[in-house]
Each structure stands twice: as C-alpha cells, then as structure tokens.
Model the fold of this input.
Amino acid sequence: MDVLDFLERLDEINVLFEPIYSADEHVIVAYEVIGQFTDGEEMLNVVDFTYDESIPIDIRNEVEHFLIKKAMVLAKEEVTTKQVGLYLPCNPNLFMEDFGEGYFQLLKDQMEESLLPYIYLVIPEHKFNGEFEQLQHPIRYIKTYGVKVALDSIGSDSNLDQILMLEPAVLKINVSQLNYNAWGAQNHVFTTIQSLAVKIGATLMFDNIQTDYQLHHAWKNGARYFKGVYLQQPSNQFLPKDTLKERFRNECKQFISTEKRLLEVKYEEMKKLQKTIANIVEYTKPDGKDVDKLLQLAKQLENYAFRFYICNEEGFQISPNIVRKNGNWNVEEQAIGKNWSWRPYFLFNIIKLRNDVKGELSDIYSDIATGELTRTYSMALNEHEYLFVDLTYDYLYEHNIVN
Done:
C-alpha cells in the first residue's frame, strides 16, 4: 500500500473496540482500541503500521495520533456514562519523539481531566528501542493525572526491571504465546510474572482467549480481566456492560465446581501422604546419627522420595543426605553441617512444626541439584530434630499434587 495514499485516506480507518471483561463482576469494564484499514482485499492493522520502521516516523506518529483521537471521540460518551476504561495504543518509540507532549496534549484535548483515570496506555515495553529510564519520566508525569499503564505482550521477552520502572496497573498476557498445558509450576516465566503482579499491585489480563479451556486456565491462574474472540469479537459498536454476565457466571460456576473437585482430591492425597510418612517414621524411628536407621527409613520411602535428611531447629543438617540414584540409596556424609536457614520461610516453618502443624508440604519448585520439580515434606521428629523429605516428580504427578 502506498503510504502517501494511506495518509490521504485516514478517515477510512475503522476503529474497533474489543470488550474487556472482569472476573469478579462478569461485566465489561473496558474496551481496547483496534484500528483497521481496508484497501481492496488487503487489511491493514493500524497499530502494526505504527511499528513498521521502514516508514518515516513522522508519518507513523500522525497515523497513531489520528487513531487515538478518532477512538476517543467515538468512545467519550461510553466512558462518561458507563465509566468503562479505554485502552489506547501507545508506541513508546513514537511517544518519546517529543517526550510524550503530543500524546498527552491529545488526551487532554479530547477528554476532561476527570475522565483521564479511565485511560490506559497500552505499551509493549520490549519494543522500546531507547533508554528506558528516559521513557519512565514522561510516563510517570502523565500518571499523575490518573492515566494508567497496561504493559502489553508480557512474557519471556519482558524485562522485569523495566516493568518495575513503569509501575503498570495491568499486565497483559497473550495466551497464544504461552504453552497453557504447562501453566503453573512448570512455566517459570508465568509464575514469575504472577508473583511480580501480586507484589506491585498490578492486575493480570489474559488476552486473545479463543477457547473455554484457555478461559478456564486464565481464571484458575489469577486473571482478573479477560479478552478474546471466545468472549466477543471486536466491534465498532459498544455493548451493554452485562451482555455476557449470565453466560460468564455460568461458566465460572462450572470452573469453580471443577476446581473444587480437583482440590478435594489434592487435599485428600496430601492428607494421605502426611499420614503415610508419619506412620513410616513412627515405625522406623529414624535418628540423624544412625545411618542404619536412615537406610531403613529410605527403604520405606522408596515409592515417595528421592532424598531426605534431618536438621536441627536452627537449620543445621545433622544427618547425611540419603539420596536415591540409579535405583540405589546412597549416603552423602559431606552434607552434614550444612545450614538451610537461608531458604525463604525455613525458620517460620520450623516454628509451625514445633507448635501446631503435624507436617508441612512446600510449594512445588525445581531442585537445585537435579533440576527435577519437587515438593518437600517436613515434619518434627522431636523438639530438636526435623525431617525433610524431597518427593519425586513421578509421585506428585501420579497423585495430582504437582501444582
């Protein structure tokens, strides 16, 4: 498409609004702006156009500003009357051409200051080519007016330091870029993002949802906002806020029912595991300094664990590691004397075990030595000795307690 011809036909840009739904109220809480231009059989995504560096930057800037202005004119009444958010594209490279002045002036010209808190700048931070510290300053200034930032396409290309600098209100995750069969503990990128969102007070939005399966996993993994063709196609029309409320609520009930069943099974398996290990320990009566006793315990734990050891209340290891390798249990004396109190929550868990918890099963994590996903089961042997049992991934998987 000829760029100059496109500039003469900017009025033909079709502004679409893709609804964003909330997980708590099951209503439309915002719309994301999409720009399309049709030239014969060719369909141009206007936002993609603004990132095409073969096109002069002033032209791309003009096109982005035109799209934003047209979108705000069309959406202003919807924002005002229904108080829904409006997610506007913001190419950070164009934005920084004048340090955000043109973009910000456009917002102020089209929206009363009282409406600016409903505006979200959709920024893909990994596409910014400049010094990130420079981008941070005008963004921070605009945010003083209530404008919010939604970081786009969060994933393995994202820089955590840059996310922290912009202090986004929303982290957008494109489900098509995730292996959602491995969401949760096995997807370290996702769990890092999930944890970061909690720490900085950002909301997770799952984008490009195309199936009920993806919606279920997004709901299960802490998404507050959802968007995608499974819910609603982008349109040039605004919809009633509760247009999918009944359908959404019914699907949510199904998710809850399914999840409760899974959690009941998981809870029972964890109780069973706790009881089994407690019975084995009571039968074998392990002693941190008696290797024969430890090997008796190892034989009983063969179907559950690949390693165990005993520590005192300060985290110093008083037993060797008893480790299963190639079908045999080995005694690693060199582990005696190591201290594990540096591990997060170690000392707090000791206090819980000493006072009112019979056994504690950790979250899943990757073992430093083997790389294998595991959970550690811990229990008090007496007032001064605590047993730590590292469970095999096979056992966790077979008994549905991986995640």
Summary: Confidence is low (pLDDT under 50) at residues 182-186. The radius of gyration is 27 Å. The first helix runs from residue 3 to 8.
